[in-house]
UniProtKB/TrEMBL annotation:
The keyword Membrane applies. Gene3D superfamilies: Rhodopsin 7-helix transmembrane proteins (1.20.1070.10). It comes from Eurypyga helias (Sunbittern). SUPFAM superfamilies: Family A G protein-coupled receptor-like (SSF81321). The keyword Chloroplast does not apply. Signal peptide: none annotated. This is Proto-oncogene Mas. It comes from the Eukaryota. Coiled coil: none annotated. Residues 1-151 form the G-protein coupled receptors family 1 profile domain. GO terms for molecular function: G protein-coupled receptor activity. GO terms for cellular component: plasma membrane. The chain crosses the membrane at residues 25-48, 60-85, 97-119, 125-154.
Length: 177
């Protein structure tokens, strides 16, 4: 979400640079690097926390929470605020509204459902409340599964009733006009 948000922010702030000078494979390379980073971090959590090296588990989880809460989330929120402000002030009225709606909803639900787990892990350094931690895990699970629902609902929005397939709804969301 952070990479998508930053890319959209750069695209809105400097549209001519993005069309003329942005490397063609930049998105693909960034996605590969971010997936590799996520895999390394998930492997680190598994190795340190699940395989019995618990004395360092909180340090690893704290570092991940710090990265998520103090770097990725503010960058994502800032990029989306910039996109929102720039598009609201723009005289050019044709914007890919569905795509921006999907990005906004994905970020909104991430902040609503995904951030509480990071906050709870951070608070676990001071006090552990099992019930709250379980709720935060449930919210994180909802966050992980809500994006396809967002895509289908936004892709089918504006129709009297949903008659198409999920594939058609997804195509409507991501089509460029």
């Amino acid at each position: 979400l952070t990479a998508i948000s930053v890319e959209r922010g750069v695209g809105v702030l400097w549209p001519f640079w993005c069309r003329c000078h942005r490397p063609r494979l930049l998105s693909a390379v960034m996605c590969c690097l971010l997936w590799a980073l996520a895999s390394v971090l998930a492997g680190l959590v598994y190795f340190v926390c699940d395989l019995g090296h618990s004395q360092h588990c909180w340090r690893v989880l704290g570092t991940l929470c710090f990265l998520n809460f103090c770097f990725f989330t503010p960058l994502m929120v800032l990029s989306n605020v910039i996109v929102f402000i720039k598009l609201r002030r723009s005289s050019w009225q044709h914007h890919p509204a569905r795509l921006y709606t999907v990005i906004f909803l994905a970020v909104f639900f991430f902040l609503l459902f995904g951030i509480p787990l990071s906050v709870q892990i951070f608070l676990n350094f001071f006090v552990y409340v099992n019930f709250v931690f379980e709720i935060c895990l449930l919210l994180a699970s909802v966050n992980s599964s809500i994006n396809p629902v967002i895509y289908v609902l936004v892709g089918s929005y504006g129709k009297s009733r949903f008659r198409g397939s999920v594939k058609v709804a997804l195509q409507r969301v991501f089509e460029e006009r």
